[in-house]
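## retry 2 of 3
previous attempt timed out at serialization; input unchanged, resubmitting
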Amino acid sequence: MSEEMKPCPKCKSPYGYSLGNEIFACPECSHEWNPDEVADENVLKVLDSNGNELANGDSVIIIKNLPVKGSPKPIKSGTKVKNIRLTDGDHNIDCKIDGFGSMALKSEFVRKA
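## retry succeeded, writing output
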């Protein structure tokens, strides 16, 4: 039996432990997984306007002026956004934009930097 710990693919907890038979369990969210199997159904795939896959921490560039509700000026085309976080839903990118603060963007309006 392996005594090593593996991070949970669901909640990212670093305390996943072996149950034997190549199965690991997470003590925080009770998720069980086999690290040798690739679990594509749980992987969030977000594509930019050009079809490139985005990942957490990537930098993106806005490709068109985006109006912001409650703000007199839009987010300008060409604005670079650093350290994005991917989420599930219609607006699938969470980020902070200088001069605007925290925003949720649609991936169809950005390209990978």
